[in-house]
Automatic annotation (TrEMBL):
One Pfam family here: adh_short
PANTHER family: (+)-NEOMENTHOL DEHYDROGENASE (PTHR43490), SHORT-CHAIN DEHYDROGENASE_REDUCTASE (PTHR43490:SF99)
Similarity annotation: Belongs to the short-chain dehydrogenases/reductases (SDR) family.
Domain of life of the native organism: Bacteria
Record protein name field: SDR family NAD(P)-dependent oxidoreductase
InterPro entries in the cross-refs: NAD(P)-bd_dom_sf, Sc_DH/Rdtase_CS, SDR_fam
Coiled-coil segments: none
Amino acid sequence: MTKAQDLNGKVALVTGGTRGIGLETVRGLAQLGATVVIGARDAKKAIEVAEQFKQDGLKVESIKLDVNVHEDHVAAYKYLDENYGKLDILINNAGVLLDQENVSLEIINRTSTLPMKVLRDTFDANFFAQIELTQILLPLIRKSAAGRIVNLSSILGSLSLHADPNSPIYTFKTFAYNASKAALNAFTIHLAEELKDTPIKVNSIHPGWVRTQIGGGSADIDEVEGSRTSILAATLPEDGPTGGFFHLENALPW
């Protein structure tokens, strides 16, 4: 992947954009000139964050968008269609890690006893919601001259690395989260192939181990650094990759 390009005239939607990696992705895209729409469950918080960005001279709007609510997906389509008539960049950033309450604690493999509710709730937010929102918004992305879909995955979704006892993530067996990200990666591969003859590029990214509510306080990098791969994938040139899994410029194993 190459360095980010100028985004004047582009419209982006970032789910979960009021904090963490999502917030810094909004900032980074807006600083490149894009009009960025924050989608968040907490509509009041989204408005406050957007207003702060506007005070900094950035073009940022907000909508209520709970990724688990179908009606919010439809409302997002209507808002984007009526105000912009297209969508150039979709960042499927929102997600949850429900396997354990505190990720800073020792991770214990509880695959055989994981409650079905945890598995279903995780897949609802990290997989099914991403697919539904993407499908609903795809007609607007098709109207872009260079549509970009970025799915926030994780290196923990790599089946190859999880099967390798020598890999650095081998012991991080948070089954619901990991499986949902592996499934999201499959969606990336399948959608990218379907759209291979269009200008749209679809990629999964691993932001790194980031100090966020999910990543915990012991993580390697801050949220700004964690947003870099999302921004790179959102700003790929015409000859950039599609159907891949990346951290920065590095391809990761499925």
